[in-house]
């Protein structure tokens, strides 16, 4: 039997823990549950100690964001499989059973995510992960069930088990030996798209990422940074460029980076026309940060990259904004 450690990263999330931790306690039989606290200033640690003494607590010395927070905490946890779970996720009865079964029956499955539905619209997929993540040729991420801001209704169309390109950090299962082999998340990302990078690096080393649609969780989303927050725009644009630089061979990476810089500039102008000047400035800041750290990211590229077809479609931007494609299955069919 696999030893599962469910690890919830927390930063000042007492209200979220009060609401969502009970479902994890109730429905995670056989798993050890940990709270990895990023130097919270609220009463979240005291709340868990008082109300859920069975939950093991690891207190990080600082708030290093999602990436460093997990890297710091997981060093102290022994398990066969880590489940990295956001504090704003509600799990469902028997949610672990299909995941464990897949790990046991599909030995090449190294990273797994379940179906992610929207807490506020339970019959729709949720932005962060939906029915499994992919990227296009230019590195823009999208999901089965979510293209940019358009979310599909869950009608059982993704109740399958299949390979995907990236698994969401909102609820990611990863074998400890794989996490260790990858040296965990890249802490330069701080937060957002570090899971895309992790999964990309994993596949460059020959590991596999799977989606298991027979396991379901509900995600509130935006509890740390909402889509309206320019800091999220900044991190998403910058970190996406980081991933391309690190994970593609030089000959492929540089033409794509140039294309992305141009398209990002168009996105910044679009923000201006939408009256979102702070988001435009966030894109500019993202590019400036990328330029400053380009050499560092370039040095992180593996000398030998496992040859994979990393993209599912050539341009999600073109398909969505020019042809109006809003559905994953139509996108792939086209």
Task: Describe the structure using short key phrases.
single chain; 334 residues; alpha/beta; Spore Coat Polysaccharide Biosynthesis Protein SpsA, Chain A; 2 domains; 9-stranded mixed sheet; two-stranded antiparallel sheet; 13 strands
Description:
This protein has helices spanning 14-27, 44-51, 65-74, 96-105, 176-181, 194-204, 230-247, 250-273, 277-299, 316-322, 328-333; strands spanning 4-10, 32-37, 56-59, 81-86, 89-91, 109-118, 133-135, 141-143, 146-147, 150-151, 161-163, 171-175, 208-219. It folds into two domains: 4-219, Spore Coat Polysaccharide Biosynthesis Protein SpsA, Chain A (Alpha-Beta Complex); 230-333, no CATH class. With 334 residues, it is an alpha/beta fold. Strand 2, helix 2 (44-51) and strand 3 form a beta-alpha-beta unit. Helices cover 41% and strands 20% of the residues.
């Amino acid at each position: 039997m696999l030893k599962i450690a469910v690890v919830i990263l927390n930063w000042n999330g007492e209200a979220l823990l009060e609401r969502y931790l009970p479902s994890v306690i109730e429905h995670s039989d056989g798993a050890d549950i940990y709270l990895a606290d990023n130097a919270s200033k609220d009463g979240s640690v005291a709340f868990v100690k008082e109300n859920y003494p069975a939950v093991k607590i690891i207190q990080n010395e600082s708030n290093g964001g999602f990436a460093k927070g997990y890297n710091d905490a997981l060093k102290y946890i022994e398990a066969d499989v880590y489940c990295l779970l956001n504090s704003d996720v509600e799990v469902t009865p028997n949610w672990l059973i299909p995941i464990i079964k897949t790990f046991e029956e599909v030995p090449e499955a190294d990273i797994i995510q379940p179906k992610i539905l929207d807490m506020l619209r339970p019959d729709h997929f949720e932005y962060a992960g939906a029915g499994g993540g992919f990227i296009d040729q230019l590195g823009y991420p999208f999901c089965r069930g979510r293209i940019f801001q358009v979310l599909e209704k869950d009608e059982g169309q993704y109740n399958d088990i299949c390979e995907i390109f990236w698994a969401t950090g909102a609820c990611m299962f990863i074998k400890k030996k794989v996490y260790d082999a990858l040296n965990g998340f890249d802490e330069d990302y701080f937060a957002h798209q570090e899971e895309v990078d992790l999964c990309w690096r994993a596949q460059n080393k020959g590991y596999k990422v799977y989606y298991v649609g027979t396991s379901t969780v509900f995600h509130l989303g935006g509890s740390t940074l909402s889509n309206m927050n320019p800091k999220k725009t900044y991190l998403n644009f910058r970190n996406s460029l980081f991933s391309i630089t690190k994970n593609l061979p030089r000959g492929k990476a540089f033409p794509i980076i140039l294309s992305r810089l141009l398209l990002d500039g168009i996105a910044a102008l679009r923000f201006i026309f939408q009256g979102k000047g702070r988001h435009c400035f966030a894109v500019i800041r993202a590019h400036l940060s990328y330029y400053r750290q380009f050499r560092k990211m370039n040095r992180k590229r593996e000398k030998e990259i496992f040859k994979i077809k990393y993209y599912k479609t050539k341009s999600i931007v073109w398909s969505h904004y020019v042809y109006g494609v809003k559905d994953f299955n139509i996108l792939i069919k086209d």
